[in-house]
Every structure is written in C-alpha cells, then in structure tokens.
Write a structure and sequence with these properties.
mainly alpha, 52% helix
C-alpha cells in the first residue's frame, strides 16, 4: 500500500466522516487525522480499525454513529484511492450496526 497523502486523508475524512471538515482545522490536526486514517486502513479487520478511532467520541450515539461504522466507511472510501492488500479486503465485511449515509449517498 502506498503512503496516504494529506490530500487523500482530507478527502477520505470528508467522504466518510464529516463533509464539513475544513482546512482551517490546521496542519497539526490534519496530520493526526492522516496518521489515524492510515492506521485504520492498515488494520487487519474492521474491529481492529474501530478500536483505533473509538476515542473520537465519548458517546458515539450522540453523533448517530459507531466506531465500527466510521472505520468501515473509511476503509471503503480508501479502497477508491489506495490499494489495500487483498487479505485486508477479504477480512473487511464493510458496514455494521450504526452505519450512516455520507454526503455522496454511499452507504
């Protein structure tokens, strides 16, 4: 898998998590997001990926989401711009409970 660029991370975050995220969040914030998205993509399963980002919200129900749903959307969006190893694709069942639709209308 190629290294995730900051531009790719921005696009993935906006597509899968929050289309309203702005560049004004700052370079440090976006770099931290890029590192975590890279870890989510590289995780061996959606379950492991969800554990990486579980801290993003103290109560995921307040944002009508779940760590597993967010991780699944990030991994699905990443397959559009990166090459995941086939073993990761095979282990990724996609979306689970708590999945919400994103701005582009994909599940």
């Amino acid at each position: 898998m190629r290294e995730l660029s900051l531009q790719d991370a921005n696009a993935l975050y906006r597509a899968a998590i929050d289309p309203r995220a702005r560049d004004t969040e700052g370079d440090h914030w976006w770099e931290a997001v890029r590192a975590e998205i890279g870890a989510v993509i590289a995780a061996p399963s959606v379950h492991a990926a969800a554990a990486i980002i579980a801290w993003w919200h103290a109560d995921w129900s307040q944002v009508a989401d779940s760590p597993r749903g967010a991780a699944g959307r990030l991994r699905k969006a990443a397959r559009r711009v990166t090459q995941l190893p086939s073993t990761v694709r095979a282990a990724d069942p996609g979306f689970g409970p708590g999945t919400r639709k994103v701005a582009d209308g994909s599940p």
